[in-house]
Amino acid sequence: MLIQADTLTDYIRKIFVASGCSDAESARISGNLVDANLNGHDSHGVIRTPRYLQWLREEKLLPDRDLSTVSESGSLLILDGNYGFGQTVGPLAVERGIALTQELGVAVVALKHAGHLGRIGAFAEMAAERDQVSIHFVNVAGSVLVAPFGGTERRMSTAPVAIGVPVRNDAPIILDFATSLVAEGKILVAAKGGKPLPADSLVGPDGNTTGDPTLLYGDADPAVTPDQRRGPGAMTTMGAHKGSGLALMCELLAGALTGSGATGPDYPRVYNGMLSIYMSVDRFDTDDSFAAEIKRYVAYFKSSKPAAPDGEVLVPGEPEQRVRTERLGNGIPLANDAWAAIVKAGEQAGVHAAI
Ligand code: NAD
């Protein structure tokens, strides 16, 4: 089915209001989830609604929390998200990092104990809008899903990385990916009848790879929110040993260094840690060459002859911009099972879908 972004945003907002979040927070959550769908990242879109509501009921995710400052010294800021919604504490932390960078030129912000931060590229976009380069390492404490290179048992989270580079008078370049071969939400989408997975997304106890979501979720009814602890297998990393090493570094930087915690089996809740580095372009760009050099290099990069006859070389961020334009016009596609699970969760909260 296809739903217009505004209609979907309003429906999801009402569900979170009915579940105890303030109007402002509910608008942030629904706006952020629908924004992920608009960017083509359905794994981090409205499909997350039932799970967020479950965490809210279980008090694993807390409504309307503010950040607390653990310490602030020079260009280093350490913040605690107090298990509040990532859609609230995430942008607050990023705003603090951007403000410090406007003052000092560079800043490092450690954010611990943040509720699920969703699409990390949204934070790189916020910094790019203020003419700042940013790098974000993230881990997901309590979410042990991914096998290290050479292993079959889960030891790591899907640990995403995002890097944003602003381009004057043009869209920013935003690289934003999970270090697992696919984001966990993409397995959730596949389990609910959406796009099938690459054949090497998961590894079984026998060491063989497959694209079968039951290796992660077991045989759970996909109409009910699947439990990713039930499956006998593990997700694989992207880029073999390199992706595995990058995921390890996310656990160490975003988890251990921030004080949030590298992932493991004994966490009572699932939450994000994030280490962000911000750099103000104006402090680097003393001869005003950055924008022209980016444009020259991107044109050179994209001029590489496509591998496929009808192919095209894109820079990171371009696929999202294209999907966004298309979905703003035509609506957001949702798999039937995903929609059924959202409607069911909405009805539990007392909100009936008039769509
Ligand atoms: P993905 O595999 O779709 O990769 C996305 C990146 O690759 C983007 O930068 C995109 O612009 C670029 N890209 C895609 N196709 C391209 C092409 N043809 N040419 C050039 N560049 C291309 O993303 P993913 O790994 O599935 O991650 C999805 C989302 O999940 C991300 O937004 C990530 O932040 C989010 N995530 C969040 C958490 C969390 O705990 N909050 C955990 C994992 C992932």
Give a description of the structure.
The chain is an alpha+beta fold. The chain has a domain at 2-60 and 328-348: Malate/L-lactate/L-sulpholactate dehydrogenase, four-helix barrel (Hypothetical Oxidoreductase Yiak, Chain: A, domain 1), CATH 1.10.1530.10. Helix content is 39%, strand content 19%. The protein is built from twelve helices and twelve strands. It has helices at residues 5-18, 23-38, 49-57, 86-104, 121-129, 184-191, 214-217, 240-257, 281-284, 290-302, 318-330, 336-348, and strands at residues 2-3, 68-73, 76-80, 106-114, 132-141, 160-167, 170-178, 202-203, 209-210, 234-235, 271-280, 332-333. Strands 2-3-4-11-5-6-7 form a seven-stranded mixed β-sheet, with helices on both faces. A hairpin with a 2-residue loop joins strand 6 and strand 7. Helix 1 packs antiparallel against helix 2. The protein is globular. The mean pLDDT is 95. The protein binds nicotinamide-adenine-dinucleotide.
